[in-house]
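Figure 3 (text version): structure tokens given as input.
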């Protein structure tokens, strides 16, 4: 792919259907993005080389998709749920215990494979994916106090690990990344205060009604403006746009996301930019390097099994094992790590693919654990 025109856009829109096709396979519960990643693998570096992930326009579109995906993930964190907030103390204890175990495992894996990425592996194995696990919980109809505690635990782990990832993926730039993260957090906090004030005065509702009546999509325009501004700030302060998107999503989720805005965001994210990002990510991964470095296959397997083991330790605090395994679902953080690592040449050849292999193993474990938990609740 030497250029980037409408023919390329048509190809990307077409291969984006790989996600729904794979996800529609009965009983397997395969996440949508798996098909999109596989399509990227086939058409990118690993496969036929049709897609050039280094094309500047392709990268820009992928970055927009990355920011939107993390924005939507942030809105999925149940920060407004009173029931979830009441379960925070026990959930926090489980998340911290998981982090301690993951830190030990991360140090062992970094030493064994000689990568020097102990902190990165610890964050990966501690992480949970709210965007993946919460829809699974909802679709299976899982309920009760243990599930509420699990939801709070996933929200804590997801938020903490997304904040920590830019700091640990390149420890040499950690101080700079920390300052950038503080700037993003300060902007998000200021935006939260402004939105609360606007909401209390009724201005937000009036703007919403006017926009809906006139079909102006003012809320979508405003959110995209703020998202792109935060993403620009993130790049200038050497922080991943992942943090900008997620921070804005948390703010919008905290003040309440209008259904119309949620539908609009769903349309532009899941309809085009999200699939394009995951196809780009698949195209940028060089899975053939795993064959050239067989130890990295073992690294991916070890990361996946290590994540499940670290989360299963929560069983010592009374959490059912099926729910503990369900909390090990990883997607956003490994995807972000592979994306940031590949863009900044921070990972060894094939290491990004190993991270994704570990994430896929947790996805498979989550699917099985969810089915087991659903059967146990039905009894």
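Below: residues designed for each position.
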């Amino acid at each position: 792919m030497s250029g980037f025109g409408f023919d390329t856009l048509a190809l990307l829109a077409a291969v984006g259907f790989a996600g729904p096709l794979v996800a529609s396979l009965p009983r397997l519960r395969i996440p949508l993005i798996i098909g999109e990643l596989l399509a990227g693998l086939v058409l990118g570096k690993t496969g036929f080389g049709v897609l050039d992930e280094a094309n500047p326009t392709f990268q820009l579109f992928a970055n927009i998709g990355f920011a939107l995906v993390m924005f939507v993930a942030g809105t999925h964190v149940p920060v407004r749920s009173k029931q979830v907030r009441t379960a925070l103390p026990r959930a926090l204890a489980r998340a911290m215990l998981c982090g301690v175990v993951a830190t030990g495992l991360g140090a062992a894996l970094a030493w064994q494979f000689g990568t020097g990425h102990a902190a990165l592996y610890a964050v990966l194995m501690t992480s949970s994916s709210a965007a993946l696990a919460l829809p699974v919980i909802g679709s299976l109809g899982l309920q009760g106090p243990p599930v509420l505690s699990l939801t709070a635990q996933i929200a804590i782990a997801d938020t903490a690990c997304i904040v920590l990832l830019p700091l640990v993926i390149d420890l040499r730039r950690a101080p700079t990344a920390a300052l950038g993260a503080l700037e993003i957090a300060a902007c998000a906090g200021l935006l939260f205060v402004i939105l609360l004030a606007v909401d209390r005065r009724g201005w937000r509702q009036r703007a919403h009604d006017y926009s809906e009546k006139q079909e102006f999509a003012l809320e979508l325009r405003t959110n995209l403006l703020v998202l792109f501004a935060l993403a620009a700030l993130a790049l200038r302060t050497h922080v991943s746009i992942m943090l900008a998107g997620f921070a804005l999503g948390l703010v919008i989720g905290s003040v309440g996301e209008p259904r119309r805005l949620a539908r609009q965001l769903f349309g532009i994210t899941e309809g085009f930019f999200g699939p394009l990002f995951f196809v780009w990510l698949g195209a940028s991964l060089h899975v053939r390097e795993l064959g050239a470095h067989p130890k990295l296959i073992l690294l991916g397997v070890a990361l996946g099994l290590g994540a499940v083991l670290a989360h299963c330790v929560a069983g010592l605090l009374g959490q059912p094992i099926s729910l503990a395994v369900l909390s090990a679902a990883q997607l956003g953080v490994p995807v972000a790590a592979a994306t940031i690592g590949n863009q900044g040449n921070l990972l060894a050849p094939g290491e990004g693919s190993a991270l994704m292999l570990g994430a896929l193993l947790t996805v498979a474990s989550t699917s099985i654990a969810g089915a087991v938990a659903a059967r146990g609740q039905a009894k």
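DSSP finds 19 helices and no strands in the chain.
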